[in-house]
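quick one, 403 residues, struct below
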Amino acid sequence: MISPSELLSNGLQYHRAGQLAAAEQCYRRALQFDSKNADALQLLGVLAVEAGRFQEAIAWIGDAIRIEPNRATLYVSLAEAHQRTGDEARTIAASRRALQIDPHLPQAHASLAAAYYRQGNLQASVAGYRQLVRLLPQDLGARIALGRVLKSFGQAAEAEACFRRAVLLAPDDHEPLALLGLALLDQRKPEAACAAFDAALAIAPRDASTRSNRGNALKLMGRIDVAEADFRAAIALDPGMAAAHNNLGSLLLDQNRFPEALESLQVAISLQPDSCAVLCNLARTLNELGHLDEALSAARRAIELQPEFSYAYGDLGTSLKNLGRIDEAVAAFRAAVQLAPQESVHHSALAYALNCHPGYSASAIFAEHRAWGRLLADRLTERALPHANDRVSERRLRVGYVS
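---
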């Protein structure tokens, strides 16, 4: 007669081969021999997760935990089941319990860090992935996960170091190189980013995302024609890639090719209707084409999606100003300035809009311009090189007007 351990062994073989029905039959037969077999209960739970039967999985694994409450891997399986139901609080609780039992269990650190990331707790997620990397210093996935979270947290330099280590771990894998390029792009290092993207494309020439990202690097380098070719190549490789359509639309917008930009951005928004970046580009393009009500709607939708994004308020202000609603425009520009006081474009838009407002005196408008100068221009003036012009008083003066 076949033993429970043999049934579990056979079930695992079926499980690994993707034959879930046969695996489940073996696990259930093992339970008939011993209803308190925690291994069989856990495996039934894992199988139920893979089959999309999440509540059933939670019940199986819960039974296993009642039998062996101090087995850390059971809580990792439970965390996976809760995560698949979208219950991040229970995912975190189960992962923490696993780590109380075994603080060095990599799967528990990975589960906890990923749950924190999905919750938006980036600092806790970084801490979790750092611990995972300490436990598995040669693990490519751990290194990439840490780099991704650091990048999301705005720590592009640390993310770069992480991805460089990942490249060393897997020099023939295009993904670490592509991620390295993104981290460099975040640091406004387009030449270095382009080199990383080139290396990634040498390995995976049909990777549409990397092709589009290289286009962004080339755009920053001023190589507009080549950037446009990259965006169009990315779209040809993956017509459903909203980011490539948006990147192309943004480039065309910068070149004042407004009808073409609108066409690209309309495709992008149809593919990704809740993208704040696409909506902002769309609002700018619609403003340029004189479709002011549509531009206003796009800007308002962008703010609904991302209330802390200063450029959405800037686009809203531009739409309102163009519609002659100056009070509302000034309020929108002030909101943009408050959200991003170091962005000169918002101050400039505000100062310009005040000229259209009958309630502001010349001295008040001048005061706003002086405030812009103190915040943004003075620190640059301090670093200006001395003029080397001819100071002979009798020479003809050449005067330039700057707006």
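The CA atoms of residues 185 and 193 lie 6 Å apart.
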